[in-house]
Inverse folding.
């Protein structure tokens, strides 16, 4: 099969040269099925990649966030990457001073290098998804908005193809959806885990942040209040994903305390 993005021959679900999906996709505008690798719908002409919403004119919620708005639109339009990382702070606000160290929550393996060196066709769907997540987070921490724009839709597609996911996989997907400004999807993804595992700190925080970005402060407070209620006990559970994402967890608690107005002992 020829990749519609780079023209390379490939097999499987992803192009081994550029990482583009090789499976047909549904157009988000008209729901028509489009050819594998296509960037635009052959029926309506709409873009098949995630589009950033335009920034709202007035702010609201914590820190002056726009009601239902997305800082991703500001970032792609004006390069304000830091704003995105602060308001959806979980992925990369960690120690990235050493370029050889993996981003928080990213799988081991070191620098992925240029896209042609990432042979996704040799990986399981979950391995490919985690590698793309890692690439997005590395690019975000480096301030490379062009690479994030390229790889963010691929990473989201990869996790969708890797379903069913574990709690950590859904957390990764929720973060990616939030970075793309798809806050309702980010909320739904995190809450899917919480239905069976209501005390999961990472998905509880992701749900709270997604709700807050949508302007739903009531739902956000409910999620954050629950997080504070179970925080210490749940952290003692020693889940592998808590250790993997340990640099994020203090910030999660601070965000919860800021919104709920709880003390550190809550």
């Amino acid at each position: 099969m020829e990749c519609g993005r780079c023209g390379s021959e490939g097999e499987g679900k992803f192009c081994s040269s550029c990482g583009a999906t090789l499976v047909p996709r549904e157009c988000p505008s008209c729901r028509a099925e489009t050819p594998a690798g296509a960037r635009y719908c052959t029926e309506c002409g709409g873009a098949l990649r995630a589009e950033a919403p335009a920034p709202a004119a007035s702010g609201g919620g914590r820190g002056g966030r726009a009601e239902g708005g997305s800082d991703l639109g500001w970032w792609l339009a004006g390069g304000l990457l830091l704003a995105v990382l602060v308001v959806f702070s979980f992925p990369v606000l960690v120690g990235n001073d050493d370029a050889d160290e993996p981003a928080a929550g990213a799988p081991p393996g070191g620098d992925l290098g240029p896209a042609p060196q990432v042979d996704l066709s040799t990986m399981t769907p979950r391995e490919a998804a985690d590698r793309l997540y890692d690439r997005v987070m590395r690019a975000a921490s480096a301030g490379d908005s062009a690479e994030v724009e390229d790889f963010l839709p691929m990473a989201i597609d990869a996790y969708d193809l890797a379903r069913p996911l574990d709690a950590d996989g859904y957390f990764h997907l929720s973060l990616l959806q939030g970075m793309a400004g798809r806050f309702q999807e980010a909320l739904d993804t995190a809450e899917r885990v919480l239905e069976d595992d209501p005390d999961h700190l990472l998905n509880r925080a992701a749900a709270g942040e997604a709700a807050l970005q949508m302007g739903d402060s009531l739902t956000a407070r409910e999620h954050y209040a629950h997080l504070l209620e179970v925080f210490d006990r749940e952290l003692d559970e020693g889940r592998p994903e808590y250790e993997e994402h340990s640099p994020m967890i203090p910030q999660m608690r601070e965000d919860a305390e800021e919104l709920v107005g709880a003390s550190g002992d809550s």
Notes: The mean pLDDT is 74. The first helix runs from residue 71 to 78. The chain has two domains: 1-48, 49-114+121-260. The CA atoms of residues 4 and 37 lie 4 Å apart.
